[in-house]
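Quick question, first post here. What does this chain look like in 3D?
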Amino acid sequence: MDNEQDTRQKIVIVEDNFALADIYNTRLTVIGYNCRIANDGEEALQVIEYFKPDLVLLDLMIPKISGGDVLKQMRSTEWGKDIRVYVISNLNEEQAPPDLRELGIEGYTVKANLHNDDIDNLVDKILTPPDQEESISLEEPAV
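> Answer (accepted):
Ran it through. Tokens below.
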């Protein structure tokens, strides 16, 4: 039974590279997110519908149903139409399905350009409310 963990923001990591999915999951769990992993498109749709995440990190080149088709199917449902999605793929954006931006994504990153703590910063930037960003500043308040 999930109890206090339900208050953490939820992320579904859709990634068929098990090692990479595990790295993302470990890093994001350590900084306080509640994560689930899906390794193919069919599993992704099931996990996303059940888990109702705040964010989906979506690889495009996954088995069974492509990431682009996962996004299209999500957007056509009541439960998936407003979920934030960030694409992380080996494809550069020019090779990706042309309608990704129209389907509503937060952004797009090529995996090769993603460094160690980039995933943490990227997710924090998407999921931290704008009014909260200022309150976490480490700078001394102006007097």
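The radius of gyration is 16 Å.
The chain is about 35% helix and 15% strand.
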